[in-house]
Amino acid sequence: GNSVTQMEGPVTLSEEAFLTINCTYTATGYPSLFWYVQYPGEGLQLLLKATKADDKGSNKGFEATYRKETTSFHLEKGSVQVSDSAVYFCALRAGANSKLTFGKGITLSVRP
Amino acid sequence: DAGVIQSPRHEVTEMGQEVTLRCKPISGHNSLFWYRQTMMRGLELLIYFNNNVPIDDSGMPEDRFSAKMPNASFSTLKIQPSEPRDSAVYFCASSLSLEKTWPQHFGDGTRLSIL
User: Does A49 lie at the interface with B, CB-CB under 8 angstroms?
Assistant: First the structure.
């Protein structure tokens, strides 16, 4: 079956630090990959996506590259801000009539 | 553009009462999903619809839970009778289709507390 594994959290960083959040997946066929962000008290928002191997998704300074050879979709940002504090979910969709398979999510806290 | 709209935002009720959660998907979206989020179990998919037809309800926890989508612009999730362990945040999401490249767009959720 399909599954998404995220690194254990929480993660605490100082403002302007470099961020990497690891995500690996197992899927049948060729999935589409997504990162969602959930700010406190809100729903999940799509942050970025990639639909085929070697695609790079980017948004708000965040980037992730679809690596088929390592089945990974790691999220990176060069300089985090306090406003990036949130829960980040990696997810995939694969196959026909597919539902989203989510990772467990990781909480990021950014200190001023 | 209007996003996914859920109501109510908060609901507090006593156990045994019927609870109805409502969702209006993004106009033109053909797929709708109901999720539940708790600290213990994380994000769980309960049921999803395509073109108003339920596709997979295997995530619905028990017969006390039911969901309907009478038309393309409205869906309900009902719990009857409610129990304290149903307390959670319930999210609705919609997608243009079930095709894998399309993302899901989430509402702000209904925070449900059963006393």
Answer: yes
pLDDT at B31: 94
Task: State the average pLDDT over residues B52-80.
Answer: 95
Q: Quickly list DSSP for chain B.
A: ----EEE-SEEEE-TTS-EEEEEEPPTT--EEEEEEEETTTEEEEEEEEETTEEEE-TT--STTEEEEEEETTEEEEEESS--GGG-EEEEEEEES-SSTTSPPEE---EEEEE-
Cβ contacts (< 8 Å) between A49 and chain B: which residues?
101, 103
Q: B35, B46 in Cβ contact below 8 A?
A: yes
Structure token digits, residue B51? 């073109």
Kindly tell me the sign of the dihedral angle through the C-alpha atoms of B45, B103, B22, B43.
positive
Could you give the CA distance from residue B38 to residue A110 in angstroms, rounded to a whole number? 23
Query: Cα–Cα distances in Å, from A91 out to A31, B49, B95, B101?
Result: 10, 19, 15, 12
Q: How many residues does chain B have?
A: 115
Residue B103 pLDDT: 86
Looking at residue A96, what is its pLDDT? 65
Contact assignment for B105 to A46 by CB distance below 8 Å: yes
- Candidates A34, A50, A93, A90; CA nearest to B98 is A93
